[in-house]
Specification:
4 helices; 4 strands; two-stranded antiparallel sheet; alpha+beta; single chain
Length: 98
């Protein structure tokens, strides 16, 4: 049986989570709260933001999820989900025809 976890940023169900320090460790965040994120979200955050930005203004999931720079990423995830759902429906219809 596969264990399923939920990403705190994108809310997708995934098989693995990573620990994201909401205040980066190099900015004094070793003892601050962390968030459990899917690998994709974690990588995206560190691709979009510097540790200085994360520590200064994006130190909660709410602040991160509402930031303008990450919104295109969420749109991409939604489009991928819709595309995947549509393909699953098409496959089911094809199977039902046979």
């Amino acid at each position: 049986m596969i264990t399923v976890y939920k990403c705190e940023l994108c809310n997708r169900e995934v098989s693995q989570l990573t620990e994201h320090h909401l205040v980066p460790k190099e900015r004094g965040g070793k003892d601050f709260p962390t968030a459990n994120l899917c690998i994709t979200c974690h990588k995206q955050i560190h691709a979009l933001y510097t540790n200085r930005e994360l520590a200064a203004r994006l130190f909660t999931i709410d602040r991160l999820s509402n930031d303008e720079k990450i919104k295109p990423y969420f749109i991409m995830l939604l489009l991928l989900f819709l595309h995947s759902s549509l393909n699953k429906k098409r496959l089911m219809l094809q199977l039902l025809k046979h």
